[in-house]
Specification:
Elements (H helix, E strand, L loop, with lengths): L1 H11 L4 H20 L15 H9 L3 H41 L12 H52 L7 E4 L15 E6 L5 E7 L8 E7 L8 E5 L7 E7 L6 E11 L2 E14 L11
Parallel strand pairs: 1-3, 2-8
Antiparallel strand pairs: 3-6, 4-5, 4-7, 7-8
């Protein structure tokens, strides 16, 4: 009976040397299988150890599908790791940007201590007081400006009223200048234009000039212009419709608009869009000041 128990025990628990025997048997079978295959060429026939690796991969279940799956897994893992690293650095850059933005923003800081509602109320009252002071200063400046403008307007009105009164009064010895080309002596210097002097006494505030239409030329209309010799644009211009011969054009110039100085009077004939300059006269106007009052002797 003991012998039966021993045999059963050997069947149930085989000795440890069986594993080594199994491995040796597999290797020998693999080598025998390789040697049994008929070689085509000794140069191209693989060695037994060269065909061992594919057989081991086949025994382990490693085929092209599992290789592709493993590669896809590795690529996905690498991409995910790269994305996580990029998000990490992006998060750090965003934190740095927010910190810099917060550092630039003005903060309500009280040097004496923490900001309280009472402190804010006091600051608001101070700001309102400063605003009221500024508004008061602006109001005062505007009032002063209005007063200055009113004073200036008053002075201008007084001056204009005096000039109007002078014109409204009878003008004694107001000069009348006859601008007849036949009576005006030419300039001694041929390179210079003839300058006609006009002297206005202190008893007059204006003078009058008389222009003559040329005898040999006739136009539907005549244009009279008063110019400053230094400026091309006329100071004044007016149109005159011709009258039966002889036709004269009388023009009065007031001191307020034409003070002492040089002026040019130009007479032109107008026929539609055509304009012909007929005569040009250069005047030198001078208003004499009133005589000074004699000092009374004591």
């Amino acid at each position: 009976m003991n012998s039966e128990v021993a045999e059963q025990s050997q069947h149930i628990n085989p000795p440890y040397g069986n594993e080594a025997t199994t491995t040796t048997t597999f290797t020998e079978e693999l080598r025998a299988t390789t040697e049994d295959e008929s070689p085509i060429d000794s140069g191209t026939t693989p060695k037994w150890w060269q065909s061992l690796i594919p057989r081991l991969f086949s025994r382990a279940g490693f085929n092209p599908f599992t290789a592709a799956l493993t590669g896809l897994f590795l690529i996905t893992s690498l991409s995910l790791s790269t994305w996580l690293i990029a998000q990490h650095f992006k998060h750090k850059a965003e934190l740095a940007r927010l910190a810099a933005q917060q550092a630039q923003e003005p903060r309500l800081v009280d040097t004496d201590g923490p900001v309280t509602p009472e402190t804010l109320e006091a600051r608001i009252e101070e700001a309102q007081k400063q605003l009221t002071d500024v508004q008061t200063q602006l109001t005062e400046q505007n009032a002063d400006r209005v007063l200055s403008n009113q004073e200036l307007l008053g002075i201008q009105n007084d001056t204009l009223q005096k000039e109007m009164d002078e014109i409204a009064k009878p003008q004694l010895d107001a000069p009348i200048i006859d601008l007849d080309p036949a009576k005006i002596a030419p300039s001694a210097d041929a390179t210079k234009e003839t300058l006609i002097p006009v002297t206005v006494p202190p008893t007059a505030a204006l003078f009058t000039v008389i222009l003559h239409k040329p005898v040999d030329k006739s136009y539907p209309n005549y244009l009279v212009e008063v110019l400053d010799p230094k400026k091309p644009k006329p100071l004044w211009s007016g149109t005159k419709t011709p009258t039966p011969d002889p036709m004269n054009i009388t023009m009065t110039l007031v001191r307020r608009n034409y003070p002492s100085g040089k002026y040019r009077i130009r007479l032109s004939g107008v026929d539609g869009k055509k304009k012909d300059v007929l005569e040009t006269f250069n005047l030198e106007v001078k208003y004499l000041p009133p005589p000074k009052a004699a000092k009374k002797k004591r």
